[in-house]
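One example given next:
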Amino acid sequence: MDNSGFAKAFNDAVDICSSRFFAPIPAVWRIKRSLNIGSEKKLKESIKIIDDFAFEIIKSKAKQEQYDRIYPDWRNQDLLSRFMAKTSSEIEFDDEAKKRKFLRDIIISFILAGKDSTSTALTWFFWLVNGHPHCDRLILNEVATLDPTFTYDDLKSLNYLHAALSESLRLFPPVPINSRSTVSDDVWPDGTRVSKDWFADYSAYAMGRIDKVWGPDCREFKPERWLHGGDGVFKPSDQFKFPAFHCGPRTCLGKDMAFVQMKTIVVALMREFEIIAVDGGATAEKMMDPPYTLSLLLKMRGGFLVRLKKRRFNPN
């Protein structure tokens, strides 16, 4: 990725698109786009690099698909390969160019959804755990029960870790604000009327800090709120109360995969290292004014600086 320039182009494109949302005078970036100058020129150049990268992936997958017809190999059945196979069999396109553009959009969606969201979520998770030592101990106790060659079912048994990750996502959702455009006039269940082409925004970040929704302790990091009674079993929240992965028919398709990835990384890291936040982690004072920087993602301002200490860990 370093050699292709894709990673930098992708980050630049995301940052420039984010700046459009926060521009006090939208006409400015539109003028830049029409004149092809400044940030809009850079965006155009970045999109060209991103498109070329995506089309190369499509080209290589198409060659692999032809090879697999002759020599079937389950190891090549990754998510994109499966999607391309399904697209070829179930969706009709006017020409090959439209099919390639459709697959390009899918690739970019995959990358946009998974590239930074999981790492952002884990950044806040480790920052929060650092400020709550009792949570760290409880998570480590669960991790200690796992065999070194743990399975997917083993990860499902980590109720407290799942609760801690959910609580972290409640307080610091990777995508803090979502925006939708209405395609026609409508009336919502509560009687609110919206007109065609209106923007409807909601903030998962703000919802996680509303007393009416989560109670008077809504600003506190308490994984226990996700556990059922005294048996310690994880209990999911109402999806419309916890929209970190969206809701209803728009629920994120990668939700379960994201939890598996996060759990796997947490287990792998905590078995080997103590992760010590340089700033001391999420103290009560810092929780009132979190060190975030706002873009399309809720990233930590200045990054998450840590010290790693090798852990003398015997799971037995």
Summary: Strands lie at 177-181, 186-187, 193-194, 199-203, 227-228, 233-234, 273-277, 292-294, 298-300, 306-310. The CA atoms of residues 95 and 101 lie 10 Å apart. The domain at 117-310 is CATH 1.10.630.10 (Cytochrome p450).
